[in-house]
Design the sequence.
């Protein structure tokens, strides 16, 4: 992870000068991140794929405005999230069905997890369902920090907010997640101790 | 873990980190070759979206072309089109007629009205004169959002007799005012079949009354990296006067909303 930004700087610089191979290498490196960020926003694989692809194309043509030496990852996240939001607008009819099912499940209205499911799996699926209920801003900030391991400075760039507000936003998002979790949810002993 | 209903921050963070590596993502598609194909297929560097929106002449041209295309589409075959944009005579607002206006629950964002301020502070932050309707008196809260060109002010009124609670906002009445002449695409509304849109007028200015089933409202300043907000909106009266776009959202009937509006410019 530590070596990456330096590689990025060189690749971005080459891509800025029209080196398509360099840009392809960047896409290769970040397509998983881009797709997953987009999926956090859209909740739909096809839309996330479209959004990530479009974001990479747009980012290429926007490289001229990219500040040389700046981290590529949060800049890309920002473009991806914007693209994903655009997709979500047109796709909300499809997403609404899936989301309703998840929401119903989370609030106990629909099929409960199979009794045989392990405690950790149940905890995880509850966590996923609850995350999906959060507003996008909260979900993204939690994902940036805890799933994608962005630094505070990178999160500020990705979220387009002042660096000084990142910590409090994160803490508020965590609080809202906790509030949204079922009151009787227990942390499975294995999960907290397991190394991610 | 003395209180199982209260998971400590550190434990919740650790659980999330663990989840991050096991999150049920669909498999990542291979984008690299497709992106490469699209980049190399274009011989001319196209204008970026930001560039487009920042260039008023190009924007005007695109808007004109869009208007012609949409107009032609509407005339050609209005019934089969999924969404037809109606460009209201109210600047700052675009309305799209869609088959279903419901956004996904996760897409709905809470009201983001900006900073809470006093009416005086709000006035000093915006480039137009804030109008407060005398019929409903001083707002319970005033918000200002200066990220938008010219600024936007929101006057919020708690539910009370005569101002029924609006589930979508948690308020009795919400009035927003902004420079519609400066931000043409600031508000987009998606209106489904259960919602009616009716052309009307407020003090002689063209206005629209959008009522019935809640409609989706998207607030964004295109190309300016502002986060958009998406939520369901209740009955809305919207009009423009002197470059300022006014929007009244409430659970009121058209007659009652018009009575409040007639107090405003």
Sequence:
């Amino acid at each position: 992870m530590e070596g990456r930004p330096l590689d990025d700087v060189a690749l971005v610089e080459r891509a800025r000068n029209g080196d398509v191979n360099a840009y392809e290498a960047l896409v290769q490196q970040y397509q998983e991140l881009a797709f997953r960020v987009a999926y956090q926003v859209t909740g739909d694989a096809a839309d996330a794929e479209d959004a990530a692809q479009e974001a990479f194309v747009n980012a290429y043509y926007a490289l001229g405005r990219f500040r040389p030496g700046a981290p590529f990852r949060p800049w890309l996240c920002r473009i991806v999230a914007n693209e994903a939001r655009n997709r979500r607008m047109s796709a909300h009819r499809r997403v609404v069905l899936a989301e309703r099912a998840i929401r119903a499940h989370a609030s106990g209205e629909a099929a409960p997890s199979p009794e045989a499911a392990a405690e950790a799996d149940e905890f995880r699926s509850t966590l996923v369902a609850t995350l999906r209920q959060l507003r996008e801003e909260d979900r993204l900030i939690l994902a940036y920090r805890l799933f994608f391991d962005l630094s505070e400075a990178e999160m500020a760039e990705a979220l387009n907010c002042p660096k000084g507000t990142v910590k409090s936003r994160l803490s508020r998002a965590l609080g809202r997640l906790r509030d949204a979790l079922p009151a009787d949810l227990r942390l499975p002993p294995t999960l907290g101790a397991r190394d991610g | 873990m003395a209180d199982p209903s209260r998971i400590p921050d550190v434990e919740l963070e650790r659980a999330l980190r663990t989840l991050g590596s096991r999150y049920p993502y669909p498999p990542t598609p291979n984008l690299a070759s497709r992106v490469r194909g699209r980049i190399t297929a274009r011989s001319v560097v196209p204008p970026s979206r930001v560039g487009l929106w920042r260039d008023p002449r190009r924007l005007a041209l695109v808007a004109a072309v869009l208007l012609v295309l949409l107009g032609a589409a509407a005339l050609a075959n209005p019934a089969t089109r999924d969404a037809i944009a109606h460009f209201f005579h109210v600047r700052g607002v675009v309305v799209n007629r869609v088959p279903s206006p419901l956004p996904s629950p996760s897409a709905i964002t809470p009201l983001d009205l900006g900073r809470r301020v006093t009416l005086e502070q709000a006035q000093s932050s915006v480039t137009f004169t804030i109008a407060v309707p005398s019929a409903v008196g001083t707002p319970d809260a005033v918000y200002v959002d200066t990220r938008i060109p010219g600024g936007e002010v929101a006057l919020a009124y708690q539910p009370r007799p005569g101002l029924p609670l609006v589930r979508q906002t948690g308020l009795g009445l919400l009035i927003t005012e902004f420079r519609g002449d400066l931000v043409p695409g600031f508000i987009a509304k998606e209106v489904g079949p259960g919602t009616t849109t009716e052309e009307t007028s407020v003090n002689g200015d063209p206005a629209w009354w959008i009522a019935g089933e809640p409609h989706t409202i998207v607030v964004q300043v295109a190309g300016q990296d502002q986060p958009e907000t998406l939520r369901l909106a209740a009955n809305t009266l919207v009009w423009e006067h002197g470059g300022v776009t006014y929007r009244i959202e409430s659970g009121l009937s058209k007659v009652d909303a018009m009575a409040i509006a007639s107090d405003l410019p």
Summary: The CA atoms of residues 133 and 263 of chain B lie 5 Å apart. Chain B has six helices and 13 strands.
